[in-house]
């Protein structure tokens, strides 16, 4: 199945799209460059600004015509999916699945289920505490810059989050899991940085050190 992912929002969403892409590729699906070529169209969404949501709804409206012309699957993932859940499918019935922020690793199972059960819908938005530790995005080689997830949350008191809790609960990756996520963070490279042992983020009022 050929897939296309359209991403809205922050760098975290860019990273999540990479995760979804990796899961689909390693299951034998093929990436393409436009929704017109795809059998599976996925919108990775943002809820920080209403304009971002409006753009997604506009694109979902276009998908209705595509679904009439040929048999495709349409999915919504990310913060908008997490916030809206079943109500998104109620508003846009031609959407086939909605996956919250903790269920990107379920994407291939959901796609397979929908292929085997035409007409069915899937909505997964419950909190999955294990996803942050198990999420996997292999790094072929160290890059000058790359996205690495150290926590998943839209913390209610955070000034940068105008959509509280749409990113799920507050979850931070362990130090060991973080070290496995990039070849650039080898023991030798960490030894060169005077800041490594000072890395910390506040979670529930306590600093978690990495």
Quick tags:
2 domains; about 210 residues; 8 helices; single chain; two-stranded antiparallel sheet; 6-stranded parallel β-sheet; alpha/beta; globular; Rossmann fold
Kindly describe this structure.
Mean pLDDT is 76; it is low at 154-167. This protein folds into two domains: 2-124, Rossmann fold (3-Layer(aba) Sandwich), CATH 3.40.50.12160; 138-209, no CATH class. 34% of the residues lie in helices and 18% in strands. The strands form three sheets. The protein has a six-stranded parallel sheet, with helices on both faces. A two-stranded antiparallel sheet has the order 7-8. The longest helix is centred in the first third of the chain and has 20 residues, at 50-69. It has eight helices and ten strands. The chain is an alpha/beta fold and 210 residues long. Strand 5, helix 5 (107-116) and strand 6 form a beta-alpha-beta unit.
Number of strands: 10
Task: Give helix % range.
Answer: 25-40%
Q: Which architecture of the largest domain per CATH?
A: 3-Layer(aba) Sandwich
Which spans of ≥5 residues are poorly predicted at pLDDT below 50? 154-167
User: Measured on Cα atoms, how large is the radius of gyration?
Assistant: 18 Å
> In the CATH scheme, what's the topology name of the largest domain?
Rossmann fold
Number of helices: 8
- The CATH top-level class label of the largest domain: Alpha Beta
**Spatial ordering of strands, largest sheet:** 2-1-3-4-5-6
CATH homologous superfamily title of the largest domain? Methylthiotransferase, N-terminal domain
How many domains would you count in the coordinates? 2
Strand content: 15-25%
Largest sheet, strands/sense/barrel: 6 strands, parallel
């Amino acid at each position: 199945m050929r897939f296309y992912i359209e991403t809205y929002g922050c760098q975290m969403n860019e990273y999540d799209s990479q995760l979804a892409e990796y899961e689909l590729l390693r299951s034998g699906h093929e990436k393409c460059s436009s929704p017109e070529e795809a059998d599976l169209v996925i919108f990775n969404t943002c809820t920080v600004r209403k304009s971002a949501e409006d753009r997604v709804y506009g694109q979902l409206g276009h998908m209705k015509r595509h679904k009439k012309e040929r048999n495709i699957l349409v999915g919504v993932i990310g913060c908008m999916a997490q916030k809206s859940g079943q109500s998104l499918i109620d508003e846009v019935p031609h959407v086939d699945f909605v996956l919250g922020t903790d269920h990107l690793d379920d994407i291939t199972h959901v796609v397979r289920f929908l292929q085997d059960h035409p007409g069915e819908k899937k909505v997964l938005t419950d909190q999955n505490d294990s996803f942050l530790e198990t999420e996997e995005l292999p790094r072929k080689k160290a890059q000058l810059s790359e996205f690495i997830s150290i926590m998943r949350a839209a913390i209610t008191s955070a000034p940068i989050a105008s959509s509280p809790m749409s990113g799920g609960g507050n979850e931070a990756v362990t130090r060991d899991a973080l070290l496995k996520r990039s070849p650039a963070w080898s023991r030798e490279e960490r030894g060169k940085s005077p800041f490594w042992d000072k890395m910390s983020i506040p979670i529930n009022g306590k600093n978690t050190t990495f």
